[in-house]
Write a structure and sequence with these properties.
This protein has 491 residues and is α+β, with helices and mostly antiparallel strands. The protein has 15 helices and 20 strands. The protein has three domains: 1-216, SH3 Domains (SH3 type barrels, Roll); 223-318, no CATH class; 326-490, no CATH class. Helices cover 37% and strands 27% of the residues. A hairpin with a 2-residue loop joins strand 8 (175-180) and strand 9 (183-188). The radius of gyration is 29 Å and the shape is elongated.
Length: 491
């Protein structure tokens, strides 16, 4: 039991075992910014500022103060009785320690204090009695503290959180930090949750552990493609190990949202590696379609939207290739290492004398080709990133053929896709649908594009609000797209 070993080793290093043998016992600080003073009076010099969860060795009592020694800071002094709780690490006190731990598990803001009580319980309880419940509580507290420390906060709260993070680090709780989406993200390494999955835990505990271990915000952005592929394969395994039959609708939907997003990433990665991504893409679609949006909490809306966009970006891995009767087509060949080259040909222009040739490092979805009835345009989906899919539009102008890349949005690549949705008779306009994340919000847009400039002539956030779109949308697109999922749910 690695986490148990880590906690005990740190308790030894910080003097816990010596303190446990002390005649006066231990005390846990229960209030942030508790003063450790030189004497038992308010006007005495302050040696140190203590935080909730700090554990002290008790060496005596004077008036309304305890005489203590802080092994972490190697300082002696006095603290007020009202700002600490005395405790014993004897086995008979273990149930009481765990009762407090379980209470604090659901108390937002008391994470460091809860972790201190969990550490005390792990020290006091017989090894055979330590089960999944204690690790579930420990992991929940550590994970919530990391998430709280990652959001914008006032200077005072930032100081308090920094103090609490130092406290939990002294108990062997490892919290990583890295930059994510332009801000600092803190994440618990999840060791306690791994223990939950390995022990005889309840379905709900396993589900919470799986969700915490696969949190997308905690994926290191500096991972190499190989490392990311290995991590996502591990994430799918973790999510699959969480039973769903006995869960509440809320937890089951949350697992579905997370699974859909991860399997979509795996589909893209497999295809990019030259492997077959169809099974992973189909799994992503299945997970997404099983979700009931009405059974999601308000805080899950963005996660659901992101999962849908990720699945939508990679959905071509699951789609069959349609045979086109048009003589205008794309020939896909390997280019330089890592490149895919696209050659536009027709009955009069073969690969040796093509109409146009372009190469890309993105993943080319050859089954996405759609040709206009007039023969003057062709669209193709190209996906450079796992959650970002572009639309390549080949169109004939007076001076010959050209290709333009239409991205999902004007912001830097993050999460989004744009896709062909239909041709408008006359050969001058086309329909497109896009979903993207803009300023932290997910938006849908159904548009009419001018083929000559690819500017948006008209747009609406629902296709039925745009009569020309509703009239000329492609039946195949309507059947396959995920951008109409909300309308399907309403029906």
């Amino acid at each position: 039991m690695r986490i148990f070993t880590i906690v005990i080793a740190l308790l030894i290093g910080s003097g816990w075992l010596n303190m446990a043998c002390a005649a006066e016992g231990l005390a846990i600080v229960v209030r942030d910014r508790t003063a450790l003073r030189a004497e038992a009076r308010d006007s005495a010099t302050q040696h140190a500022e203590l935080w909730a969860g700090d554990t002290l060795e008790v060496r005596g009592e004077r008036l309304d103060y305890l005489q203590v020694y802080d092994h972490r800071r190697e300082r002696a002094g006095f603290v007020r009785l009202s700002e600490v709780r005395r405790l014993s690490l004897s086995p008979e006190n273990a149930p009481e320690l765990f009762a407090v731990t379980r209470f604090l598990r659901d108390s937002v803001g008391d994470e460091s204090l809860g972790i201190a009580y969990a550490a005390a319980y792990l020290q006091a309880a017989p090894a055979k009695s330590i089960g999944a419940d204690s690790f579930d509580a420990l992991g929940t507290l550590a994970d919530r503290l990391a998430q709280r420390a990652s959001v914008n906060r006032s200077a005072a709260k930032e100081i308090a959180l920094a103090g609490q993070l130092e406290v939990v680090a002294s108990y062997g709780i490892h919290i990583r930090s890295f930059e994510h989406a332009g801000r600092m993200q803190l994440c618990y390494d999840g060791e306690a949750f791994r223990r939950v999955l390995a022990l005889a835990a309840t379905d709900e505990q396993k589900a919470r552990a799986a969700l915490a271990l696969t949190r997308p915000q905690c994926v290191d952005p500096d991972l190499t493609p190989v490392q990311r592929h290995e991590l996502d394969n591990w994430r799918t395994d973790v999510l699959d190990r969480a039973p769903r039959d006995g869960l509440s609708e809320l937890l089951r939907n949350r697992l579905g949202v997370r699974s859909a997003a991860v399997w979509a990433s795996v589909a893209f990665q497999r295809t990019r590696r030259g492997e077959n991504g169809q099974e992973a893409a189909e799994r992503a679609l299945q997970e997404l379609t099983r979700i009931d949006p009405k059974q999601l909490a308000d805080g899950d809306a963005d996660d659901y939207a992101e999962a849908a966009v990720r699945v939508g970006a990679s959905r071509w891995a699951a789609e069959p290739e349609l045979k086109s009767k048009s003589e205008l087509r794309i020939v896909v060949d390997a280019g330089e290492p890592g490149q895919t080259c696209l050659t536009l040909v027709d009955k009069n222009h073969d690969a040796k004398s093509p109409l146009l040739k372009r190469c890309t490092f993105g993943t080319v979805w050859a089954n996405s080709v759609r040709v206009a009835a007039s023969g003057n345009a062709l669209t193709l989906a190209v996906q450079p990133l796992e959650a970002w899919r572009e639309l390549w539009v080949f169109h004939r102008e007076s001076d010959g053929w050209q290709v333009d890349v239409v991205p999902p949005g004007t912001n830097s690549p993050d999460v989004g896709y744009i896709e062909f949705a239909g041709w408008i008779p006359g050969g001058k306009k086309m329909l497109a649908a896009r979903e993207t994340k803009v300023d932290g919000r997910y938006q849908q847009s159904f548009e009419v594009l001018d083929l000559a400039t690819l500017n948006v002539d008209k747009h609406a956030d629902k296709p039925e609000y745009l009569s020309i779109f509703y009239r000329w949308q492609d039946p195949q697109w309507k059947q396959q797209t995920l951008s109409l999922r909300d309308a399907a749910a309403r029906r």
